Protein backbone atom coordinates (compact mmCIF):
# COMPACT_ATOMS: atom_id res chain seq x y z
CA UNK A 1 0.00 0.00 0.00
CA UNK A 2 1.40 3.35 -1.02
CA UNK A 3 1.75 5.84 1.77
CA UNK A 4 -0.23 9.06 1.44
CA UNK A 5 0.32 12.39 3.05
CA UNK A 6 -3.21 13.59 2.38
CA UNK A 7 -5.82 13.88 5.09
CA UNK A 8 -9.32 12.49 4.70
CA UNK A 9 -11.97 15.16 4.07
CA UNK A 10 -15.48 13.66 3.81
CA UNK A 11 -18.10 15.22 1.47
CA UNK A 12 -15.79 17.93 0.24
CA UNK A 13 -15.81 19.68 -3.09
CA UNK A 14 -12.96 19.74 -5.59
CA UNK A 15 -11.92 23.20 -4.45
CA UNK A 16 -11.74 22.03 -0.84
CA UNK A 17 -9.70 19.02 -1.87
CA UNK A 18 -7.25 21.21 -3.77
CA UNK A 19 -6.86 23.44 -0.75
CA UNK A 20 -6.36 20.35 1.41
CA UNK A 21 -3.33 19.09 -0.53
CA UNK A 22 -0.10 18.79 1.42
CA UNK A 23 3.11 19.40 -0.45
CA UNK A 24 6.17 17.25 0.23
CA UNK A 25 8.57 19.99 -0.78
CA UNK A 26 9.38 22.44 1.98
CA UNK A 27 9.25 26.03 0.89
CA UNK A 28 9.47 29.50 2.23
CA UNK A 29 12.36 31.63 3.41
CA UNK A 30 12.79 29.65 6.61
CA UNK A 31 13.39 26.40 4.73
CA UNK A 32 15.80 28.15 2.40
CA UNK A 33 17.79 29.47 5.35
CA UNK A 34 17.99 25.96 6.79
CA UNK A 35 19.29 24.62 3.48
CA UNK A 36 21.82 27.43 3.28
CA UNK A 37 23.08 26.84 6.83
CA UNK A 38 23.42 23.11 6.16
CA UNK A 39 25.30 23.86 2.96
CA UNK A 40 27.61 26.30 4.73
CA UNK A 41 28.49 23.73 7.40
CA UNK A 42 29.63 21.18 4.82
CA UNK A 43 33.38 20.97 4.73
CA UNK A 44 35.19 19.62 1.71
CA UNK A 45 38.14 17.93 3.36
CA UNK A 46 39.72 16.96 0.04
CA UNK A 47 40.30 20.63 -0.71
CA UNK A 48 42.60 20.90 2.35
CA UNK A 49 44.97 18.27 0.96
CA UNK A 50 48.00 19.93 -0.63
CA UNK A 51 50.59 18.14 -2.67
CA UNK A 52 54.17 18.82 -1.68
CA UNK A 53 57.17 19.53 -3.89
CA UNK A 54 58.09 15.85 -3.90
CA UNK A 55 54.64 14.90 -5.22
CA UNK A 56 53.38 13.33 -1.97
CA UNK A 57 50.94 14.41 0.72
CA UNK A 58 53.33 13.75 3.59
CA UNK A 59 53.18 17.39 4.68
CA UNK A 60 49.39 17.27 4.93
CA UNK A 61 49.47 14.04 6.93
CA UNK A 62 52.02 15.50 9.36
CA UNK A 63 49.89 18.59 9.85
CA UNK A 64 46.84 16.41 10.60
CA UNK A 65 48.84 14.45 13.18
CA UNK A 66 49.97 17.69 14.79
CA UNK A 67 46.38 18.90 14.89
CA UNK A 68 45.39 15.77 16.80
CA UNK A 69 48.21 16.17 19.31
CA UNK A 70 47.51 19.84 19.88
CA UNK A 71 43.79 19.21 20.20
CA UNK A 72 44.43 16.88 23.14
CA UNK A 73 46.77 19.32 24.86
CA UNK A 74 44.72 22.50 24.39
CA UNK A 75 42.48 22.25 27.45
CA UNK A 76 41.05 24.70 29.89
CA UNK A 77 43.88 25.51 32.29
CA UNK A 78 41.91 27.70 34.69
CA UNK A 79 42.78 26.69 38.28
CA UNK A 80 39.55 25.40 39.81
CA UNK A 81 38.62 23.49 42.91
CA UNK A 82 38.20 19.88 41.86
CA UNK A 83 37.31 16.69 43.66
CA UNK A 84 40.49 14.62 43.46
CA UNK A 85 39.02 11.87 45.71
CA UNK A 86 36.36 10.35 43.49
CA UNK A 87 33.89 7.49 43.87
CA UNK A 88 32.60 6.44 40.45
CA UNK A 89 30.09 3.76 39.47
CA UNK A 90 30.12 2.64 35.82
CA UNK A 91 26.77 1.27 34.60
CA UNK A 92 27.14 -0.76 31.39
CA UNK A 93 24.21 -1.75 29.20
CA UNK A 94 24.35 -5.54 28.71
CA UNK A 95 21.01 -5.83 26.91
CA UNK A 96 20.30 -7.12 23.41
CA UNK A 97 20.68 -3.61 21.99
CA UNK A 98 24.46 -3.89 22.48
CA UNK A 99 24.69 -6.56 19.77
CA UNK A 100 24.35 -3.93 17.04
CA UNK A 101 27.36 -3.57 14.74
CA UNK A 102 27.16 0.15 14.01
CA UNK A 103 30.24 0.42 16.25
CA UNK A 104 32.84 -2.15 15.20
CA UNK A 105 33.14 -4.96 16.05
CA UNK A 106 29.99 -4.61 18.18
CA UNK A 107 28.77 -2.13 20.72
CA UNK A 108 29.25 -4.72 23.44
CA UNK A 109 32.88 -5.62 22.70
CA UNK A 110 33.89 -2.05 21.95
CA UNK A 111 32.38 -0.85 25.23
CA UNK A 112 34.29 -3.47 27.21
CA UNK A 113 37.55 -2.52 25.53
CA UNK A 114 37.04 1.20 26.06
CA UNK A 115 36.09 0.62 29.69
CA UNK A 116 39.36 -1.22 30.27
CA UNK A 117 41.31 1.67 28.76
CA UNK A 118 39.30 4.16 30.78
CA UNK A 119 39.97 2.36 34.06
CA UNK A 120 43.71 2.39 33.40
CA UNK A 121 43.65 6.10 32.54
CA UNK A 122 41.31 6.90 35.42
CA UNK A 123 43.61 5.49 38.09
CA UNK A 124 46.60 7.10 36.40
CA UNK A 125 44.96 10.51 36.77
CA UNK A 126 43.08 9.78 40.03
CA UNK A 127 45.21 7.37 42.08
CA UNK A 128 43.30 7.91 45.34
CA UNK A 129 39.86 7.26 43.85
CA UNK A 130 37.64 4.17 43.63
CA UNK A 131 35.49 2.58 40.92
CA UNK A 132 32.63 0.08 40.87
CA UNK A 133 30.96 -1.56 37.84
CA UNK A 134 27.28 -2.53 37.40
CA UNK A 135 25.60 -4.18 34.41
CA UNK A 136 22.00 -4.16 33.13
CA UNK A 137 20.64 -7.43 31.70
CA UNK A 138 17.22 -9.18 31.58
CA UNK A 139 15.55 -6.35 33.48
CA UNK A 140 17.94 -6.76 36.41
CA UNK A 141 21.02 -5.00 37.74
CA UNK A 142 24.12 -7.22 37.89
CA UNK A 143 27.11 -6.39 40.07
CA UNK A 144 30.19 -6.82 37.88
CA UNK A 145 32.87 -5.41 40.19
CA UNK A 146 32.71 -4.06 43.74
CA UNK A 147 33.89 -0.60 44.73
CA UNK A 148 37.67 -0.79 44.83
CA UNK A 149 40.83 1.15 44.04
CA UNK A 150 42.62 -1.76 42.37
CA UNK A 151 42.44 -1.48 38.56
CA UNK A 152 43.55 -5.08 38.03
CA UNK A 153 40.40 -6.45 39.68
CA UNK A 154 38.14 -4.29 37.51
CA UNK A 155 39.92 -5.19 34.29
CA UNK A 156 39.81 -8.92 35.03
CA UNK A 157 36.07 -8.72 35.79
CA UNK A 158 35.47 -6.86 32.53
CA UNK A 159 37.38 -9.48 30.57
CA UNK A 160 35.14 -12.15 32.08
CA UNK A 161 32.14 -10.41 30.46
CA UNK A 162 33.41 -11.36 26.99
CA UNK A 163 32.25 -14.94 27.58
CA UNK A 164 28.63 -13.85 28.02
CA UNK A 165 26.35 -12.50 25.31
CA UNK A 166 24.16 -9.43 25.85
CA UNK A 167 20.49 -10.31 26.18
CA UNK A 168 17.16 -9.05 27.45
CA UNK A 169 16.12 -5.48 28.24
CA UNK A 170 17.91 -3.00 30.51
CA UNK A 171 16.45 -1.73 33.78
CA UNK A 172 17.69 1.77 34.44
CA UNK A 173 15.86 2.08 37.75
CA UNK A 174 17.35 -1.10 39.24
CA UNK A 175 20.86 -0.07 38.15
CA UNK A 176 20.50 3.42 39.64
CA UNK A 177 19.20 1.98 42.92
CA UNK A 178 22.17 -0.39 43.15
CA UNK A 179 24.59 2.43 42.31
CA UNK A 180 23.04 4.66 44.95
CA UNK A 181 23.40 1.89 47.53
CA UNK A 182 27.08 1.46 46.61
CA UNK A 183 27.73 5.21 46.92
CA UNK A 184 25.64 5.67 50.06
CA UNK A 185 28.57 5.05 52.43
CA UNK A 186 31.08 7.11 50.41
CA UNK A 187 32.63 9.84 52.59
CA UNK A 188 31.44 13.40 52.14
CA UNK A 189 34.91 14.71 51.23
CA UNK A 190 34.84 12.74 47.94
CA UNK A 191 32.67 13.01 44.87
CA UNK A 192 29.82 10.63 44.05
CA UNK A 193 29.49 10.01 40.33
CA UNK A 194 27.69 7.65 37.97
CA UNK A 195 28.73 6.98 34.37
CA UNK A 196 25.95 5.39 32.31
CA UNK A 197 26.81 3.73 28.98
CA UNK A 198 23.34 3.30 27.52
CA UNK A 199 22.80 1.59 24.16
CA UNK A 200 19.07 0.89 24.29
CA UNK A 201 16.11 3.16 23.57
CA UNK A 202 13.93 1.94 26.44
CA UNK A 203 14.11 0.90 30.07
CA UNK A 204 12.12 -1.88 31.73
CA UNK A 205 11.56 -0.50 35.24
CA UNK A 206 9.52 -2.08 38.04
CA UNK A 207 8.40 1.24 39.55
CA UNK A 208 8.52 5.01 39.24
CA UNK A 209 12.00 5.96 38.06
CA UNK A 210 11.42 9.63 38.91
CA UNK A 211 11.45 8.72 42.61
CA UNK A 212 14.83 7.07 42.07
CA UNK A 213 16.14 10.22 40.39
CA UNK A 214 14.89 12.29 43.34
CA UNK A 215 16.82 10.01 45.72
CA UNK A 216 19.98 10.51 43.64
CA UNK A 217 19.55 14.27 43.88
CA UNK A 218 19.11 14.04 47.64
CA UNK A 219 22.31 11.97 47.90
CA UNK A 220 24.30 14.55 45.83
CA UNK A 221 25.18 12.05 43.10
CA UNK A 222 26.21 13.45 39.72
CA UNK A 223 25.36 11.47 36.59
CA UNK A 224 26.93 11.40 33.13
CA UNK A 225 25.28 9.54 30.25
CA UNK A 226 26.83 8.44 26.94
CA UNK A 227 24.26 7.14 24.49
CA UNK A 228 24.98 4.75 21.65
CA UNK A 229 21.66 4.87 19.77
CA UNK A 230 19.88 8.19 20.21
CA UNK A 231 18.94 10.67 22.89
CA UNK A 232 16.42 9.30 25.39
CA UNK A 233 14.09 11.62 27.30
CA UNK A 234 14.49 9.93 30.69
CA UNK A 235 18.29 10.10 30.41
CA UNK A 236 18.09 13.81 29.67
CA UNK A 237 15.87 14.30 32.71
CA UNK A 238 18.34 12.31 34.81
CA UNK A 239 21.25 14.49 33.73
CA UNK A 240 19.39 17.77 34.22
CA UNK A 241 18.26 16.97 37.74
CA UNK A 242 21.53 15.48 38.99
CA UNK A 243 23.70 18.25 37.47
CA UNK A 244 21.80 21.47 38.19
CA UNK A 245 24.91 23.67 38.02
CA UNK A 246 26.16 22.47 34.62
CA UNK A 247 25.03 22.46 31.03
CA UNK A 248 23.20 19.20 30.15
CA UNK A 249 25.14 18.96 26.88
CA UNK A 250 28.30 18.55 28.91
CA UNK A 251 26.98 15.46 30.70
CA UNK A 252 24.81 13.81 28.04
CA UNK A 253 26.21 13.01 24.60
CA UNK A 254 25.52 10.46 21.89
CA UNK A 255 28.57 8.79 20.34
CA UNK A 256 28.92 9.49 16.62
CA UNK A 257 31.58 6.89 15.84
CA UNK A 258 34.30 4.85 17.50
CA UNK A 259 36.72 7.76 17.85
CA UNK A 260 34.10 10.08 19.32
CA UNK A 261 32.96 7.34 21.69
CA UNK A 262 36.48 6.96 23.06
CA UNK A 263 36.89 10.72 23.44
CA UNK A 264 33.65 11.00 25.40
CA UNK A 265 34.70 8.26 27.81
CA UNK A 266 38.29 9.43 28.28
CA UNK A 267 37.09 12.96 28.97
CA UNK A 268 35.72 11.75 32.30
CA UNK A 269 39.19 10.87 33.58
CA UNK A 270 39.65 14.53 34.55
CA UNK A 271 38.19 15.29 38.00
CA UNK A 272 34.97 17.33 37.88
CA UNK A 273 34.65 20.86 39.11
CA UNK A 274 33.52 21.23 42.71
CA UNK A 275 30.31 23.24 43.06
CA UNK A 276 29.15 24.88 46.25
CA UNK A 277 26.33 22.89 47.79
CA UNK A 278 24.31 23.85 50.79
CA UNK A 279 24.89 21.37 53.58
CA UNK A 280 21.88 19.77 55.15
CA UNK A 281 23.35 19.93 58.62
CA UNK A 282 26.17 21.49 60.57
CA UNK A 283 28.06 18.20 60.65
CA UNK A 284 28.06 17.99 56.85
CA UNK A 285 29.47 21.50 56.53
CA UNK A 286 32.45 20.66 58.75
CA UNK A 287 33.01 17.07 57.60
CA UNK A 288 35.34 17.91 54.71
CA UNK A 289 37.53 20.44 56.53
CA UNK A 290 40.24 17.92 57.46
CA UNK A 291 40.92 14.40 56.21
CA UNK A 292 42.95 11.81 58.09
CA UNK A 293 45.19 9.57 55.98
CA UNK A 294 47.87 7.04 56.66
CA UNK A 295 51.17 6.63 54.81
CA UNK A 296 52.27 3.03 55.47
CA UNK A 297 55.64 1.53 54.60
CA UNK A 298 56.19 -1.67 52.68
CA UNK A 299 57.25 -4.77 54.60
CA UNK A 300 58.46 -8.20 53.53
CA UNK A 301 57.74 -11.16 55.80
CA UNK A 302 60.04 -14.20 55.90
CA UNK A 303 56.94 -16.41 55.90
CA UNK A 304 53.60 -15.75 54.17
CA UNK A 305 50.83 -14.31 56.31
CA UNK A 306 47.19 -13.50 55.66
CA UNK A 307 46.31 -10.04 54.42
CA UNK A 308 43.37 -8.16 55.91
CA UNK A 309 41.84 -7.21 52.54
CA UNK A 310 41.57 -10.61 50.78
CA UNK A 311 42.52 -13.11 53.52
CA UNK A 312 45.17 -14.58 51.23
CA UNK A 313 48.69 -15.64 52.28
CA UNK A 314 51.21 -13.08 51.00
CA UNK A 315 54.84 -12.47 51.84
CA UNK A 316 54.80 -8.72 51.17
CA UNK A 317 52.43 -5.84 51.78
CA UNK A 318 51.85 -2.62 53.66
CA UNK A 319 51.18 -2.20 57.38
CA UNK A 320 48.48 0.22 58.44
CA UNK A 321 49.98 3.12 60.37
CA UNK A 322 47.13 2.99 62.92
CA UNK A 323 46.28 -0.68 63.58
CA UNK A 324 49.22 -2.46 61.84
CA UNK A 325 46.93 -4.54 59.63
CA UNK A 326 48.54 -5.79 56.42
CA UNK A 327 47.06 -4.89 53.03
CA UNK A 328 48.19 -6.02 49.61
CA UNK A 329 48.27 -2.82 47.58
CA UNK A 330 47.75 0.93 47.81
CA UNK A 331 45.72 3.10 47.69
CA UNK A 332 43.02 1.42 49.73
CA UNK A 333 41.01 1.69 52.91
CA UNK A 334 42.10 -0.33 55.91
CA UNK A 335 39.53 -3.12 56.47
CA UNK A 336 40.08 -3.00 60.23
CA UNK A 337 40.07 0.72 61.15
CA UNK A 338 38.74 2.29 57.87
CA UNK A 339 41.76 4.58 57.54
CA UNK A 340 42.62 5.80 54.05
CA UNK A 341 46.06 4.40 53.14
CA UNK A 342 48.01 6.04 50.33
CA UNK A 343 51.55 6.91 49.28
CA UNK A 344 52.99 10.39 48.95
CA UNK A 345 53.41 9.83 45.20
CA UNK A 346 49.65 9.40 44.87
CA UNK A 347 49.05 12.89 46.19
CA UNK A 348 51.76 14.26 43.91
CA UNK A 349 50.08 12.70 40.85
CA UNK A 350 46.73 14.30 41.78
CA UNK A 351 48.28 17.73 42.36
CA UNK A 352 48.42 18.73 38.69
CA UNK A 353 44.62 18.79 38.42
CA UNK A 354 44.46 21.68 40.88
CA UNK A 355 47.25 23.66 39.19
CA UNK A 356 47.39 22.52 35.55
CA UNK A 357 50.25 23.29 33.22
CA UNK A 358 49.50 26.32 31.06
CA UNK A 359 49.06 25.83 27.33
CA UNK A 360 52.09 26.67 25.24
CA UNK A 361 51.78 29.19 22.43
CA UNK A 362 52.76 28.78 18.80
CA UNK A 363 55.92 30.48 17.58
CA UNK A 364 55.78 32.17 14.15
CA UNK A 365 58.79 32.39 11.88
CA UNK A 366 59.25 36.09 12.68
CA UNK A 367 59.76 35.29 16.36
CA UNK A 368 61.85 32.18 15.71
CA UNK A 369 64.27 34.11 13.46
CA UNK A 370 64.61 37.11 15.79
CA UNK A 371 67.94 37.91 17.36
CA UNK A 372 66.67 36.95 20.82
CA UNK A 373 65.64 33.39 19.89
CA UNK A 374 67.83 32.79 16.83
CA UNK A 375 70.19 30.50 18.76
CA UNK A 376 67.35 28.14 19.82
CA UNK A 377 67.68 25.59 17.04
CA UNK A 378 67.05 22.50 19.21
CA UNK A 379 64.08 21.43 21.29
CA UNK A 380 64.73 22.13 24.95
CA UNK A 381 63.15 18.83 25.97
CA UNK A 382 64.39 16.14 23.56
CA UNK A 383 67.16 18.14 21.81
CA UNK A 384 65.66 17.36 18.41
CA UNK A 385 66.51 19.91 15.69
CA UNK A 386 63.77 22.28 14.62
CA UNK A 387 62.87 22.61 10.93
CA UNK A 388 64.65 25.36 9.05
CA UNK A 389 62.87 28.26 7.41
CA UNK A 390 61.59 27.15 3.97
CA UNK A 391 62.94 29.00 0.97
CA UNK A 392 60.50 29.50 -1.89
CA UNK A 393 61.69 28.23 -5.22
CA UNK A 394 61.44 30.15 -8.47
CA UNK A 395 58.55 27.91 -9.54
CA UNK A 396 56.56 28.75 -6.42
CA UNK A 397 57.26 32.46 -6.82
CA UNK A 398 56.18 32.42 -10.46
CA UNK A 399 53.03 30.46 -9.57
CA UNK A 400 52.17 33.03 -6.92
CA UNK A 401 52.64 35.95 -9.32
CA UNK A 402 50.63 34.45 -12.21
CA UNK A 403 47.33 36.24 -12.89
CA UNK A 404 44.21 34.28 -12.18
CA UNK A 405 42.17 33.14 -15.14
CA UNK A 406 38.75 34.75 -15.53
CA UNK A 407 35.83 32.52 -14.79
CA UNK A 408 33.95 31.06 -17.77
CA UNK A 409 36.51 32.03 -20.39
CA UNK A 410 34.64 30.40 -23.28
CA UNK A 411 31.06 29.93 -24.33
CA UNK A 412 31.10 26.23 -23.49
CA UNK A 413 31.86 26.87 -19.85
CA UNK A 414 29.27 29.61 -19.71
CA UNK A 415 26.66 27.29 -21.21
CA UNK A 416 27.50 24.50 -18.78
CA UNK A 417 27.37 26.95 -15.91
CA UNK A 418 23.94 28.13 -16.93
CA UNK A 419 22.59 24.59 -16.75
CA UNK A 420 23.89 24.00 -13.20
CA UNK A 421 21.61 24.83 -10.28
CA UNK A 422 22.58 28.09 -8.68
CA UNK A 423 22.60 28.63 -4.96
CA UNK A 424 21.05 31.71 -3.36
CA UNK A 425 23.20 34.76 -2.94
CA UNK A 426 23.41 34.25 0.82
CA UNK A 427 25.35 31.00 0.40
CA UNK A 428 28.39 32.79 -1.00
CA UNK A 429 29.97 33.48 2.40
CA UNK A 430 30.62 29.72 2.67
CA UNK A 431 34.15 30.16 1.34
CA UNK A 432 34.80 32.96 3.80
CA UNK A 433 33.47 30.94 6.71
CA UNK A 434 35.51 27.92 5.65
CA UNK A 435 38.66 30.01 5.35
CA UNK A 436 38.02 31.48 8.79
CA UNK A 437 37.59 27.98 10.23
CA UNK A 438 40.79 26.88 8.54
CA UNK A 439 42.65 29.88 9.97
CA UNK A 440 41.40 29.03 13.46
CA UNK A 441 42.73 25.48 13.11
CA UNK A 442 46.03 26.72 11.74
CA UNK A 443 46.51 28.84 14.86
CA UNK A 444 46.81 25.65 16.90
CA UNK A 445 49.72 24.44 14.72
CA UNK A 446 53.00 26.29 14.69
CA UNK A 447 54.36 27.06 11.24
CA UNK A 448 57.90 26.87 12.60
CA UNK A 449 57.34 23.64 14.58
CA UNK A 450 58.09 25.49 17.83
CA UNK A 451 55.90 25.93 20.91
CA UNK A 452 56.95 28.35 23.64
CA UNK A 453 56.30 28.23 27.37
CA UNK A 454 55.02 31.56 28.64
CA UNK A 455 57.06 31.38 31.86
CA UNK A 456 60.55 30.24 30.85
CA UNK A 457 60.24 31.22 27.13
CA UNK A 458 61.88 27.98 26.03
CA UNK A 459 60.97 26.33 22.72
CA UNK A 460 59.66 22.76 22.45
CA UNK A 461 58.56 20.45 19.65
CA UNK A 462 55.00 19.15 19.30
CA UNK A 463 55.92 15.72 20.74
CA UNK A 464 57.37 17.28 23.89
CA UNK A 465 54.33 19.53 24.09
CA UNK A 466 52.00 16.52 24.15
CA UNK A 467 54.27 14.56 26.53
CA UNK A 468 54.58 17.38 29.05
CA UNK A 469 50.85 18.18 29.09
CA UNK A 470 49.57 14.59 29.15
CA UNK A 471 52.20 12.65 31.12
CA UNK A 472 54.64 14.85 33.04
CA UNK A 473 52.32 17.83 33.69
CA UNK A 474 55.39 20.01 34.26
CA UNK A 475 57.59 22.22 32.11
CA UNK A 476 61.26 21.09 31.91
CA UNK A 477 62.41 24.65 31.34
CA UNK A 478 60.67 25.98 34.43
CA UNK A 479 61.93 23.08 36.57
CA UNK A 480 65.52 23.57 35.40
CA UNK A 481 65.39 27.26 36.24
CA UNK A 482 64.01 26.50 39.70
CA UNK A 483 66.92 24.08 40.24
CA UNK A 484 69.46 26.70 39.24
CA UNK A 485 67.93 29.30 41.55
CA UNK A 486 67.92 26.89 44.50
CA UNK A 487 71.51 25.88 43.84
CA UNK A 488 72.68 29.48 43.72
CA UNK A 489 70.74 30.28 46.89
CA UNK A 490 72.45 27.43 48.74
CA UNK A 491 75.87 28.47 47.45
CA UNK A 492 76.24 25.55 45.02
CA UNK A 493 76.85 25.39 41.34
CA UNK A 494 74.20 23.79 39.11
CA UNK A 495 76.14 20.49 39.18
CA UNK A 496 76.04 20.35 43.00
CA UNK A 497 79.61 21.39 43.88
CA UNK A 498 80.48 24.41 46.03
CA UNK A 499 82.25 27.35 44.36
CA UNK A 500 85.30 26.91 46.64
CA UNK A 501 85.56 23.25 45.61
CA UNK A 502 85.31 24.21 41.96
CA UNK A 503 88.14 26.75 42.35
CA UNK A 504 90.28 24.19 44.20
CA UNK A 505 89.79 21.62 41.47
CA UNK A 506 90.82 24.09 38.81
CA UNK A 507 93.88 25.20 40.83
CA UNK A 508 95.03 21.65 41.40
CA UNK A 509 94.54 20.91 37.76
CA UNK A 510 96.69 23.85 36.79
CA UNK A 511 99.43 22.86 39.20
CA UNK A 512 99.51 19.35 37.80
Describe this structure in words.
The strands form 4 sheets. The protein has a 6-stranded mixed β-sheet, with helices on both faces. The chain has a 3-stranded mixed β-sheet with strand order 7-12-11, with no helix packed on it. Helices cover 39% and strands 14% of the residues. It is of the alpha/beta class and 512 residues long. Strand 11 (332-333) and strand 12 form a beta hairpin.
Give a quick rundown of the structure.
39% of the residues lie in helices and 14% in strands.
Task: Give the arrangement of secondary structure elements.
Layout: H1 14-19, H2 29-41, H3 58-73, E1 86-93, H4 107-125, E2 130-137, E3 140-148, H5 151-160, H6 172-183, E4 191-198, H7 209-218, E5 222-227, H8 233-242, H9 248-251, E6 252-254, H10 258-266, H11 282-287, E7 293-294, E8 298-306, E9 313-319, E10 326-327, E11 332-333, E12 340-341, H12 344-354, E13 361-362, H13 365-368, H14 394-401, H15 411-419, H16 430-442, E14 451-452, E15 459-460, H17 462-472, H18 476-489, H19 499-511
Parallel strand pairs: 1-2, 1-4, 4-5, 5-6, 7-12
Antiparallel strand pairs: 2-3, 8-9, 9-10, 11-12, 13-14, 14-15
Helix pairs in contact: 3-17, 4-5, 4-10, 6-7
User: What structural class should be given to the helix and strand makeup?
Assistant: alpha/beta
- How are the strands of the biggest sheet laid out side by side? 3-2-1-4-5-6
Number of helices: 19
Shape: globular
Most strands sheet: 6 strands, mixed
Quaternary structure:
single chain
| Residues in β-strands, percent | 5-15%
- Which whole number gives the mean pLDDT? 78
Low-pLDDT runs:
1-6, 19-26, 278-287, 404-442, 494-512
The portion of residues assigned to helices is: 25-40%
Q: Rg to the nearest angstrom?
A: 31 Å
Gap from first CA to last CA: 108 Å
- How many individual β-strands? 15
Amino acid sequence: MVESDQEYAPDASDDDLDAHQVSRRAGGPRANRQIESAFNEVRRTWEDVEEGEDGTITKTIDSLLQQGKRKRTLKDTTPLQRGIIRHLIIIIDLSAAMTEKDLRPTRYLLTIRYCQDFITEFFEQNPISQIGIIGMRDGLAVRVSDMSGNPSDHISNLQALRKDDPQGQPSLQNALDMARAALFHAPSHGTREILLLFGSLLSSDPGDIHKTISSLVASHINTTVIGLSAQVAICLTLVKRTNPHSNPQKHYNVALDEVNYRELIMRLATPPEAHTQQATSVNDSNASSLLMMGFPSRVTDPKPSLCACHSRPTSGGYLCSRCSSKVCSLPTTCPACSLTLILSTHLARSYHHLFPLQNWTTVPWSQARSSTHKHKTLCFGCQAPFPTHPVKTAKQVSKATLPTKPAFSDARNAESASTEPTMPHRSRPRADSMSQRQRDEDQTISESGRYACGSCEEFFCVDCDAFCHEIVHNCPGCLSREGEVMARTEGLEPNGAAPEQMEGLVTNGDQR
